[in-house]
Amino acid sequence: MDTIFIKEQRAFMTGNEVIAWAALAAGADIMYGYPITPQNEIMHYWTRLAPKYGRGFLQTEDELSAGFATLGGVMAGKKAFCATAGPGNVLMQEPISMAEMMRIPAVWFIQQRGGPSTATVIYSQQETRLTCFGGNGEGLRLVYSTATHQEIFDYTLKAFNHAWRYRFPTFVLGDGYQAKMREALTLYDPQTRGTQLQSTSPMLGVKGKVQHHRNTFNIEEELYETLSKHLAEWQQMAREVVEWSVSGDEEPDLLLVAHGVVSRATMAASKQLREKGYRVGHFRPITLRPFPITALQEIAGKSQQILVVESAHGQLMSLVRDALYGCSCAPVHGLLRPGLGITAEQVIRQAEELLPKRGYSGANHS
Amino acid sequence: MLRRVEAFVGEHAAGKSEIAITRALALRQEGLPVALVDLDLVEPTYTLRPLQGRLREEGLDVIAWETKQTLGLGEAGMQLHPQVKGVLLRHSGYVVCDVGYGVYGSEVLALVEGLLDFPRLSVYLVVNTCRPLTRDEEQIVVEAQRFRPLHGLINNTHLGAETTVELVQQGARVVQAAAQRLHLPVVATAALVEVAEQMGKWDVCGNPVWPLKRYMPLAFW
């Protein structure tokens, strides 16, 4: 079998291709999928790579089947994954909920597209809420929101390892723009950097062992008991995996909050605004579920105002408000462009309307 | 009279559209008409469509879907622009085809009337050795098998903004070695204008350097 990466190498590719290579490096055995833009090239590239490296692929008849087949693959002991977008993500909420209930550790790649319904295929963050809380139940999931191709690679490796370590459905949340965008990154074998890959084992069909995996309960108390245990384990995982990045001024007049591809625009805006002399901070949740509540509270408590920027109509903003309720008096504004691209210039324009006039701010805080 | 037809093929994100634009603009310098044809049936609306107004201003006859014509076709694709079919019959000068990637390789060329029988057709494989599936001689040879006919290779080795002369020259050596095994010429090394200026007219293997001005970053869908 071919070696995946002979040595670490810089490469230039699209986000979807990065996922296929990263899944390979993460030791994924099989992908189950059903075509939908903008995730198709994950399947295209996986089907080119899989035969070379002894991995598998199955295209099912629809998204429901792809989702359930992924769970079947995992139960049979395979490191299985799935990818989808938009309405496909809606359909997959049923198998994902079952994965939550049965603690089946599959990995999903979501390349968000504009909604509602089939809508558009490129730039959107309108599946934030769906991916974090889409199913019935309590959203016992792990959701990483990436912003660069390097992060897509790194967090794909992490997603596979954390899924199998904690046994909650795990997501790498991208979008059509990241999917199609071309960018340089370093490809590497995680084991050469000291990361051990989690092993898998069959949940069913183990000789001499009777196993009972349940997604249905007859008695409410029985469900409550099981769910309480899962909730406690999820909370424990949350403390261990929660990730964010914070930068800029520590006591800002304006705190920019964004996730995923939009955070590239807000980071650039934060830098340029600070160069102009404004006191600006930047907060980016990397895990959207669990949400970095404490870290956000800390910086928000020292911020005069907050501007949430997203390619959705308040999905991140509601997570921010929920996290800050009772902890911060800073007004939360939104630059909300559902299904549209967001540039640093647009963020700067909105920020300058909110920020105190230059000079005043510096004098006030110096 | 139609002088030449050039078609650029290769894997997804190899740089086909960027090279096709560069080549079309270079040919336009000769003063003859140049038609730039969007033969991308996989993603027909994402490359030339948003750029066509600007490219028309630069003197190219762009044959691609207009935004208002793509209602409902944006992602479904697989729609050949009707003008593409007869482009060889109507055009003089040069025709440059930007061929989309996909499992069918260059079969899409058969959809253009008379193209595969045209005696002065050149199909060129665009190769970026910084892409894992075309990273070495062996892999490029395998990749080239997917495309028939094929008349030459183009070294488009780059890492976006991180591109250096050394990287491009290293790519040129790898592409040259693959081309020799395929018994095909290397037609050119393409490099961003600022890199090309440092390289001069010829790459390390003696192939011409095509200075490349990036248009695709302007195609913010």
Biggest sheet character of chain A: 7 strands, mixed
Q: In percent, how much strand structure appears in the residues of chain B?
A: 15-25%
CATH topology descriptor of chain B: Rossmann fold
The largest beta-sheet of chain A arranges its strands as 3-2-4-5-7-6-12
Please outline what is shown here.
Chain A has helices spanning 15-25, 40-49, 63-75, 86-91, 93-102, 128-133, 149-166, 176-180, 220-241, 262-275, 293-300, 315-324, 344-354, 360-365; strands spanning 9-14, 30-33, 56-59, 80-84, 107-112, 142-145, 170-175, 182-187, 244-248, 254-257, 280-285, 287-289, 305-310, 332-336.
Provide keyphrases for this structure.
heterodimer, A: 366 residues, alpha/beta, Rossmann fold, seven-stranded mixed β-sheet, five-stranded mixed β-sheet, 14 helices, 14 strands, 41% helix, globular, disordered C terminus, B: 221 residues, eight-stranded parallel β-sheet, 7 helices, 21% strand
Which secondary structure elements does this structure contain, and how are they paired or packed?
The complex is a heterodimer of chains A (366) and B (221).
Chain A: E1 9-14, H1 15-25, E2 30-33, H2 40-49, E3 56-59, H3 63-75, E4 80-84, H4 86-91, H5 93-102, E5 107-112, H6 128-133, E6 142-145, H7 149-166, E7 170-175, H8 176-180, E8 182-187, H9 220-241, E9 244-248, E10 254-257, H10 262-275, E11 280-285, E12 287-289, H11 293-300, E13 305-310, H12 315-324, E14 332-336, H13 344-354, H14 360-365
Helix pairs in contact in A: 1-2, 1-7, 3-5, 10-13
Chain B: E1 2-9, H1 16-28, E2 34-39, H2 52-57, E3 61-63, H3 82-85, H4 87-90, E4 93-99, E5 121-127, H5 137-144, E6 152-155, H6 165-182, E7 186-192, H7 193-199, E8 209-212
Parallel strand pairs in B: 1-4, 1-5, 2-3, 2-4, 5-6, 6-7, 7-8
Helix pairs in contact in B: 5-6
